[in-house]
């Protein structure tokens, strides 16, 4: 670190206080500076491969007073601006992580990691590995044996190698090969997943060579065949150009004639504050998690310190080599932020849309601009509440408006549509839609296997699990919270319960860190409580409850690498005591990980989590037993996790939502005279009384 | 039956063939005729109280050939038109049911029911009972002891009496009393549920007198107090006029400039056929079930013979007299059809709406016109499927359009919003939204009880369960279907599964009628299969799978009346062999029922249900542990049951949905320059390429 940097540092120090919020993602200039600090540690002859240059979030002990001062309108304390950098010495296995103090212009730490700690894939590396696999002479020789038509395009999907403990200390990629439709060679968007090939080259990520060529089992057992001529099955395209499209779908437009109800306030160069219907929160964005929601408040009251998708794991059912290693950690192995789609108006959202851009980093440590990676819009979610007084016929009804903060990622064959949704009743929902193309492999004709479904001639879609972990760092009216679960139990028969119909709802305190499960038979519901703040009407501690959908836990056995690595996959919920730097349920580095570094390990510290700063990891997912309807592209499967107030407010917080009526909603009456519902709007003249009905 | 009716009958016979479909609900003229047939059985001095005059649906053995001929364009067989009538000899307990053959103008059957078989309440009777309770001198004397301010309006909510086996052979009503806000006497829509009174008169439904006055326990035990002066708590109103409404919610309109995509075809005087996006089905409507969906087909292939909400039960947690009898069967005790709201444009739906009317019957056996009881509209349900080719940046995305067939019922304090939803991926969802005002009772100040929550000073909202039963009469590619369930199980470790990661998905046949449950740990999913029709690609039997949400089963013990009466409430699913006339999971007459007449009893016949005409009753619901946010009116709780194809099609059936793009969706870009998102539409000029993005 050279002295002439000091004025520069001071300048940045000032700049920070003027505009940079401690939670604002790194700006392009900060990414450049951080990478320079690392480069300057080495002679110029040493080339680096950057995996991440991202914000090192402030310690909570410093940030909480800052946020309190911010909301209290007091003078803001100074918080150093820091960058986290992970990188390889290029073409080696020397993986490092470092922290740069940008405010004081120094490298605070820089350590080499490992052994068996591997960085994630990056876009440049993945494209390079594809090329290496396809240009390898031995691979070409094997492909030649398939006797494919001249000009057939081969496609390689590099897969993270996974871990099985067998010669996998080096970082590798397992490449699955496909071809584009040989009968339509010019179609660059041909669905190659309809043409899986039985050859699978393994590429070493250090010396960047094909280290092994696997042949895939295509029968009922582990046996494989040498490459031999393959039959060409029919194509199975998903693109609209290849369909006879429906002609009877009429447009449906969402119009907000007076604009949207939300405000997006740019917080300096990066990061935004969103205000909508008494909600206020901050949006961050990083390479690994994508969207991060910070400092969530409703009507000025604190609810959550930080919300993000922490991890996901997708283990597959086929036990045969090399498929037994398929267990993707899409966030830790690649990154939700860097895989985000550039969202387009009219395609990914409907209505009045606001888009957010982000800036990440590439393998050179250069800023990587990401346009339209988050979209924000309102949507109508049906009736919010209604009651009709049957004696007077007076009906009161409001609709439920939602604010959607959405991002979409593409992970090779697959897509995830992720959204944080806020509503007017103080409810917050995290939604995942699973879509895209299911992972395929070749299977011999006429075979059926219990670990997958044939979705196209010669094509097997193996069953798999999607297991997600949503990280919830609560701050319900403050940072001292506790976790309880509520259960409903029958009353025993007694003089008090002579007819055997009574039941009670009881709370149980979760005093220690650990893994917990829902229980349908007792309707177990988890609640985050603040016992120091009581509901003024009924005296109960203010709380938010967590609605977790059912899901089948990790099917791989507890001694398997799948199970050890996916440290969150065995319980609906993990509860731990907060520690700075612990963000990822599956561990900080999931690529070929061996486990022991994630939330299961943290929970085993058996720390007291009563009335303290606790953090929850909420798991949800789906056991995807494949069906032919999931091919060539699957209809969305939707999963939701919800957080709802429980004695946090004094009454229904959506009580003050303006009533739903025709002046406001401008609906159209479809004329009953027409067999085909007509276009002409017949605005109800009786809109004044439109919410009156008689039983 | 008199001879001069014969020509009239023949005429009706012809009329039927010309326009009346066997599934069309009774027309007004048919209701009049059917009631006349019954009246003519008695001297004019005998007054009748009609409970139902509704369509007696044809035997399936006759209707199936009719529907086949109808869809095959062949000559239609003749099916007699019949009416079902249930009635009391007025002011007696003499309850009858009869079947009238309208085609041949004769009474086919007319039998007196009972003992302990009671008809449901009807609107006229309920209003009468309210008056009787409030005008009773003894009740007035007790109310006087409360020392309420002059002019305080008392409100009586008559409750179905329930059964506990204690002196309840006669049909009775338990009236719960409330007052409107004494400080605002002119407010007819005051939320009286904020002012529960401790006096509860019981009205005998036969002699129409107050037979008993109960005093409600307001403490921690069974003890009650004589009426004494009460304190007046503050009001807690839900109506918009009493709120400081939010001012920052901007309008959101749904516009279909070219009209809606669905067709509604009137099928004669009553009943409709709906066609939308390859779906075709028939809508019926009756007093008990409300909406009924018949003969559901997709792309010409048969899926379901009949779908309806079969029953619901809401047992409460308070074991104390008289609350221990609160266990409402809203369909069987009153009727979803007759309690339906008159839906208003802009209030209950958003967009381009088509309304359906219905005609039911009143207690005089006269036609009761029901306007706008069903609304039909399309809605956007977000992205339907998407894939981005990361190599070319080409993205294909379609939105998921849904057709919603919705009805809303008000049951005194409570509302249910019910909807059948169809989508473009061949999926059918039944949704219930629970809203309205939770049932309240008085509680002494400062008390907490484990069977409810204080939601307002002096007001207890008791915990309760909502348990619904959806009747599914499948016809998956025909009427010979079987029920299987699919489960995912780990493979044992072996040479075949050396790493312990493999798992299999297996099917188990349900060969006999019975009650079944889901199983989260094995991801048990039920499927309706037709083994005689195989998927042409993978040879699997065509099937639809049933997605059931978790819910806590009936908490009352198996010896309790609650449990015996709610014959569906103890399993996620009941599967039985079809029999004509078996439609209601809780039995045909639920009012003060004793059990033994519903789906549990039918299941105990242990009939073979393999490859035959089976019927499913799918249960779902919620354990409603009350929270203060549910008062004075609760935000919707949403529950869904879905039916999805499983190897029924050859690929994703939504593949041919036109792509989502800006020309079609006309979304609006909110200018980033504006802090407050701007209104001006900036239609994307690059809409041609709007679905192209680069990873």
UniProtKB/TrEMBL annotation, chains A, B:
Keyword Secreted: no
Enzyme Commission (EC) number: 1.4.3.-
Cofactor comment text: Contains 1 topaquinone per subunit.
2',4',5'-topaquinone PTM positions: 414
Biological processes per GO annotation: amine metabolic process
Key words of the record: Copper, Disulfide bond, Metal-binding, Oxidoreductase, TPQ
UniProt-annotated catalytic positions: 330, 414
Transmembrane segments: none
Enzyme class: oxidoreductase
Cofactor: Cu cation
Similarity comment: family membership: Belongs to the copper/topaquinone oxidase family.
The protein's name: Amine oxidase
């Amino acid at each position: 670190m050279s002295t002439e940097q000091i004025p520069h540092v001071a300048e940045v120090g000032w700049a920070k206080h003027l505009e940079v919020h401690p939670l604002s993602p790194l700006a392009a200039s900060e990414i450049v500076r951080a990478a320079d600090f690392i480069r300057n540690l080495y002679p110029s002859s040493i080339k680096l491969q950057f995996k991440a240059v991202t914000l090192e979030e402030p310690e909570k002990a410093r940030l909480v007073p800052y946020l309190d001062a911010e909301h209290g309108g007091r003078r803001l304390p100074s918080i150093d601006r820091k960058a986290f950098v992970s990188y390889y010495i290029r073409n080696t296995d020397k993986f490092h992580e470092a922290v740069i103090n940008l405010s004081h212009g120094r490298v605070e730490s820089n350590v080499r990691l490992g052994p068996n700690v591997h960085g994630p894939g990056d876009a440049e590396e993945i494209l390079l590995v594809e090329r290496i696999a396809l240009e390898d002479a031995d691979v070409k020789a094997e492909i030649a044996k398939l006797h494919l038509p001249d000009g057939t395009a081969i496609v390689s999907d590099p897969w993270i190698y996974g871990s099985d403990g067998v010669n996998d200390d080096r970082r590798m990629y397992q490449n699955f090969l496909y071809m584009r439709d040989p009968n339509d060679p010019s179609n660059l968007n041909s669905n190659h997943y309809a043409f899986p090939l039985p050859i699978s080259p393994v590429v070493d990520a250090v010396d960047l060579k094909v280290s092994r060529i696997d042949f895939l089992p295509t029968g009922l057992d582990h046996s494989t065949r040498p490459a031999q001529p393959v039959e060409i099955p029919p194509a199975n395209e998903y693109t609209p150009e290849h369909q006879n499209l429906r002609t009877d779908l009429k447009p449906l437009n969402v119009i907000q004639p007076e604009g949207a109800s939300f405000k997006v306030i740019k917080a300096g160069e990066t990061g935004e504050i969103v205000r909508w219907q008494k909600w206020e929160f901050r949006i961050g964005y990083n390479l690994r998690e994508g969207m991060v929601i910070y400092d969530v408040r409703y009507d000025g009251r604190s609810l959550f310190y930080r919300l993000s998708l922490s991890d996901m794991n997708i283990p597959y059912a086929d036990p045969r080599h090399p498929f037994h290693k398929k267990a993707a950690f899409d966030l830790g192995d690649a990154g939700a932020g860097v895989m985000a789609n550039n969202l387009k108006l009219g395609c990914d959202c409907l209505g009045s849309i606001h888009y957010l851009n982000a800036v990440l980093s590439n393998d050179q440590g250069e800023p990587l601009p990401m346009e339209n990676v988050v979209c924000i819009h309102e949507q109508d979610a049906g009736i919010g509440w209604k009651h009709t007084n049957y004696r007077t016929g007076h009906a009161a009804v409001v609709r439920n408006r939602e604010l959607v903060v959405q991002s979409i990622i593409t992970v090779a064959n697959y897509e995830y549509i992720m959204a944080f949704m806020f509503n007017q009743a103080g409810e917050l929902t995290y939604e995942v839609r699973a879509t895209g193309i299911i992972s395929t492999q070749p299977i011999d004709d006429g075979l059926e296997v219990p670990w997958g479904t044939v979705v196209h001639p010669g094509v097997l879609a193996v069953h798999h699990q999607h297991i997600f972990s949503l990280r919830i760092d609560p701050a319900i009216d403050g940072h001292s919270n506790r976790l309880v679960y509520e259960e409903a139990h029958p009353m025993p028969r007694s003089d008090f319960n002579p007819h055997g119909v009574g039941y009670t709802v009881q709370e149980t305190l979760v005093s220690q860190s650990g893994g917990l499960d829902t229980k349908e038979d007792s309707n177990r519901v988890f609640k985050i409580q603040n016992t120091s703040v009581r509901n003024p009407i009924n005296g109960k501690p203010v709380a938010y409850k967590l609605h977790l959908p059912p899901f089948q836990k990790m099917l791989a056995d507890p001694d398997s690498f799948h199970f050890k690595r996916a440290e969150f996959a065995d319980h609906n919920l993990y509860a731990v005591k907060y520690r700075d730097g612990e963000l990822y349920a599956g561990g900080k580095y999931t690529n070929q990980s061996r486990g022991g570094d994630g939330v299961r390990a943290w929970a085993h510290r058996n720390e007291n989590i009563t009335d303290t700063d606790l953090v929850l990891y909420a798991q949800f997912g789906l056991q995807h037993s494949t069906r032919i309807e999931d091919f060539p592209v699957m209809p969305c499967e939707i999963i939701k996790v919800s957080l709802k107030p429980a004695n946090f407010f004094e009454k229904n917080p959506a009580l003050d939502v303006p009533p739903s009526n025709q002046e406001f909603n401008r609906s159209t009456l479809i004329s009953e005279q027409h067999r085909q519902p007509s276009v002409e709007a017949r605005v109800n003249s009786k809109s004044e009384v439109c919410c009156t009905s008689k039983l």
